Amino acid sequence: MSRMSRPPSARRLAAALALTSLLSGPVAFAQYRPPPLTESQLLVKEAETVQVAASAAVASGNKKEAEEKHRKALQLFEQALAIDPNSAAAGAGLGASANALNDYARTAAKLPVLSAANPEDLSLTFPLGVAFFKLRRFQEAVPLLEKVSEKNAPEHLIVNYYLGSYYLHGRRGDLAIAKFQQYLAQRPAKLAVNDYQIHELIGQGQLLRRDVAAARGAFQQAQKGRPESVTAQMGLASVLELEGKEEDALMLVEGLVERFPQAKEPKERLGRMFLRAGNVAGAEKQALALVKLEGTASAHLLLGDVRLAQKQPKEAEAQFRKVLEMAPGVVAAQIAVGKALQAQGRNEEAIKYLEAALEKDGGNLELWASLGSVNRRAGRFQRAVEVHRRLVELAPQQALGHVLLGADHFATGQWDQAIEDYANALRVEPNHAGAQHWLAQALAHRARGRADTNRLDDAARDLRRAFDLERSAAMSRRLGAALLEQRAFAQARPVLEQGVTLEGATWREHWLLGYAYLGEGNAEAALRAFIQAEKRTEEPSDLADVSVGAALAEVELGRVDDAVERLTEPGPSKAARQLAEANLPLMLLRRALTRLESGDVENARKDVDLTEKFNLAKQQDLAKLALLTRALVQAEQGRFAEASPLIKRALTPMPTWAEPNTRALAEAYVLYRKGQVPFARKALAAASKKPSSWQAKWIASLANALHRLEGERAYATGNFKLAEKAFKAALASAQEDAALQHNLACVTYGKRKHADAAAVWRKLESSVPMASFNLGIDAQRRNEIPEAVESYRRYLTAGGPRVAVAREWRDRLMALHGLGGAAAPEANEATATETLP
Fold first, then answer.
1. What distance lies between CA 586 and its chain's CA centroid?
2. CA-wise closest residue to 398 among 369, 375, 361
3. What DSSP line would sit under 514-569, residue for residue?
4. Confidence band of 16 (pLDDT split at 50, 70, 90)
C-alpha cells in the first residue's frame, strides 16, 4: 500500500478533533484598554464639561455665570488648539463658545483653515458661517450656511432664518420664502408662539415677488399669532399699495399712528408715504414727532430726507451725519450724505466720501450703487460705468448692477448698450419693474433715431417690444404713429384702440386712431375717433389738426360740404393748413374716380369742380391728376374731342404718380368709350407690354370689355361668327359670367341651335332675367302658347328693359289663346342682354 493511501493516525485525528473543539468553543477576548488621552484631548474634554455647565446656566437664566463658563471653555479650547492645530473638536468647541460670547472675530480668525481641511464637518462649518454672517462677510458666510441648511439638521435651525433674512435684504423673494418655510418646517413646537414673525417675513418676500394674494395671506396669518402686531398691519398697508390703493394704505397707517402713539415704525412709515406723495409738510410733522418721541438714527434719517425734499441740503447733511454718529455703519445714511453733498454742488467731496465708506465696507452693494450714481450725476460717466460693472461682479444674480449700468448708458445716449443692460437685468429678475420701464424707454429712444434715418421696420420692431414691456398710452401712441408711417393701418388700429383705454390717454391717441380707421376705409369709426379727440383738447392748434382728420372722414362719408367748411378755416396750426391744402383735393379726386367706376358721372364731375377751386399751382402732380380725372369724366359724357387733349396735357411731362404706360391706357379707354374697338385694342396692346403689378387686373378688365362690345355689335348686325368668337374670348377670362353665357346662347340660337340655347337659358333664369324673355320667344316659335305666356310672366316679375314689350306680347297671347283674333307678332331672334361695365 502506498504512503498516500494510508489512513490518518489516531494521534492526528485526535489533534484534528481537538482543534475543532477549540474552534467551536466560546471566544475569549482580551480586556480592551483605550489609549490614554492626549493633553489636547484632555483639555477638550474639560472644556466640553464647562460648556455643558454654561448651557445649564443659560437655561436657568443666570447670564453672568453662563458668560464666565463660556470664557473658561474658550480658554481651554484655545489651549487645546494650540497644542494640536488639527483638532476639529477643539476648533468646533472654540467656535461655539466664541460665538456665544459674540466674539465672532475670534471664530473667523481661528476656524477657516480647520474648516477647509474638514469640509463635511458641520460642527466647524456652522460656527464659522455664523461668525462670517455676524461680521457681515456675506460672500464668505452664505456658501457655508447653505451647506449647513442642506443637511436640514434641527440643531442648525437658525441658519435658515439667517439665510432667509439675507435673501430678503437682497430682494430675492423666492429664495427668502423657501428658507423661512424650511425654518417653519423644522422649528420645535415650543417656538411656535413666535411663528407670526416668520409669517411677516414671508409676507415681505411675497411683496418682493409682487404676489399680492400670497402676501396678504402671510400677513393675515401673522395677525392670527399676534392680532395687534403693528408690523403685520404695516405689511397689509404695503399690500394695499401694491394693489394701487394708496389712499386705503395711507388711512391704515394713519390709524396705526393714532392707536399706537408710542410706536415709532408707523410714524416713520407714514412720513415716508407722505414724502412719496409729495406731502412734504405732512412728512416733516411725522419726522419731528419721531425725533421727539425717540431720537433714533432712523428718526434723524427721515428728517434728513425731509430736509432734502425741502431743498435744504446743508440741514439734511447735518441730520445724516448725526445718524452716523449714532450708528456709524448705517449704509442708507452714508449714501444720503453723498446725495446731500452733491445737492450742494460738492460733487468731488461726495465721491471721496463714498469711496472712503467703501474702503471700510467693500462688500456693500448699496454703497457701490450710490458711488456709481453720484459719478454719473457729476458727469463722470466712464467712472460710473466702471463702478457699476464692479457691482455686477459682486452680485451677478441681482438686477441692481445691470439696471444702474443701463442708466449710465442711457444718460449718454448709448441705446444699444442700455438695452443690453436692461435685458440682462430682466434675465436675472424677470419681473423687475424698473428694468422693464427703462428698457421700454431705451427702445423708444432707439426707435426714434432709426425712424429719423428711414429704418422704419427696425423702429416699429423696437416700439412693439417697448409696448409689450410697458402698456402705456404714450407707448401706444409712439408705436401707432410708426405703424401709420408705414401705412400698416390694420396693425396700428388695435394698438391705438388699446391706447385710448389706458390711463393718461390724450387727444393724440384718439387722433391717430382716426387716421388708422381712415387707412382701413372705416370712415364712420374714424369720424367718431376724431370727435373724441376734439372733446379732449381746447388748444386751437390741436383742434385744427383734429379738424383736418375729421374733414377727411367726412369726405369719405360723402359730406363734402361739411368737409370743405371745416377746411376753409383750418385754424392756427400750420400743419393743419398744409394737410387741408394737400389732402382735400386728393380725397375729392379719389372719390371722383370711385364714382366714375360705379357710373356716377354727374357727382364725379362735381368733385372735380370742387377740386379745381383749390390753389393747385404749387402742387403740379395734383393739378395733373385733376386734369386726367376731368378728361375721364368728359369721356363718360361722350365729349371725346375735349377729353383727348386733356389727357395729353395731364401726362405731358409725365407726373411722378404716373407709370410710363399711363397715357396709352387712358387713350385706350377713351377709344373704347368711343366704340373704336380695333384702335382701342391696338392702344391697349401697346400699353400692356410692361404693365406694373397693380395694372394687370385693370388691363384684363378693359380687354374683356372690348371683347364684350365687339360681340354685342357683331350680334346686333347678325355676324354670328364674329359674335361667337368675341363672346368666347370674353368668357375665357370670366367663365362664371352669367350675362356672357346668356349672350353666347343667343348666338347659338341665331345659328338655329334652338334646343342648345334654350337649355342654357333655363340654367340662367335665376341670374339673368332676359333668359325668361328669350324662353318666351322660343316657346312662341314652337307654338307652345301657355309656356310662352308663363315665360313672359316670369320676366315681368323679375323686371328688365323690355318689360313693355313682354307685357304686350303676354296680353295678346292670352287674349288670342283659344279665342281667335289677331295673331301675335312672330319673334325669330333672341334678345341679348347688356354686358358692358
1. 37
2. 369
3. HHHHHHHT-HHHHHHHHHHHHHT---HHHHHHHHHHHHHHHHHTT-HHHHHHHHHS
4. very low
CA distances to 2, 443, 465, 486, 496 from 483, rounded to whole Å, are 116, 15, 13, 5, 10
Sequence-distant (6+) residues with CB within 8 A of 807 are 792, 796
Distance CA 271, CA 262 (A): 15
Residues in the chain: 837
CA dist., res. 666 & res. 656, Å (int): 16
Long-range contacts of 615-624 (CB under 8 A, 24+ apart): 615/581, 616/585, 619/581, 619/582, 619/585, 620/655, 621/655, 621/656, 621/657, 622/582, 622/585, 622/586, 622/589, 624/649, 624/650, 624/651, 624/655, 624/658
3-state secondary structure 696-746: HHHHHHHHHHHHHHHHHHHHHCCCHHHHHHHHHHHHHCCCCCHHHHHHHHH
Single out the residue of 170, 167, 129 nearest to residue 147, CA to CA: 129
pLDDT of residue 6: 40
The residue behind cell 361667337 is: 724
Give the cell for residue 221: 396669518
Joined grid coordinates for residue 371: 458711488
CB 744: neighbour CB atoms within 10 A?
A: 23
Report the C-alpha gap between 69 and 71 in whole angstroms: 5
CATH 1.25.40.10 residue spans of the chain: 381-470
Instruction: Give the global pTM.
Output: 0.51
* Other beta carbons less than 10 A from residue 521's beta carbon: 10
By C-alpha distance, which of 234, 242, 179 is closest to 210? 242
What fold, for 381-470? 1.25.40
Q: In degrees rounded to 5, what are phi and psi of residue 487?
A: 65, 25
Q: What does the alpha-carbon distance between residue 835 and residue 837 come to, in Å, rounded to a whole number?
A: 6
Q: How far apart are CA 579 and CA 342, in angstroms?
A: 50
- Decide: residue 264, CB within 10 A, 0-12 exposed, 13-18 middle, 19+ buried: middle
- Helix, coil or strand: residue 836: coil
Q: Which of 584, 578, 504 is nearest to 541 (CA)?
A: 578
Q: Cβ of 212: how many Cβ atoms within 10 Å?
A: 15
Amino acid identity, position 402? H
Burial class of residue 495 in the structure, from the number of CB atoms within 10 Å of its CB (0-12 exposed, 13-18 middle, 19+ buried): buried
Please report, for the chain, how many H helices and E strands are present, in that order.
Answer: 45, 0
Tell the burial category of 357 from Cβ atoms under 10 Å away from its Cβ (0-12, 13-18, 19+): buried
What's the rounded Cα separation, in Å, for the pair 91 and 80?
A: 9
**Whether 114 contacts 136, CB under 8 Å:** no
Q: Which three cell numbers stand for residue 565?
A: 367748411
Cα–Cα nearest to 681, from 643, 718, 709, 648: 709
Q: What is the pLDDT of residues 634-688, one digit of tens each?
A: 999 999 999 999 989 998 988 988 888 888 888 988 898 888 888 888 888 888 8
- C-alpha neighbours within 13 Å on the C-beta side of residue 224: 10
H helix runs in 559-639, sequence order? 560-568, 574-598, 601-611, 620-636
**pLDDT tens-digit series, residues 481-511:** 999 988 899 999 999 999 999 998 999 999 9
Q: Torsion angle, CA of 20/22/27/30, rounded to 10 degrees? A: -140
Whether cis (ω within 30° of 0) applies to the bond prior to 691 is no
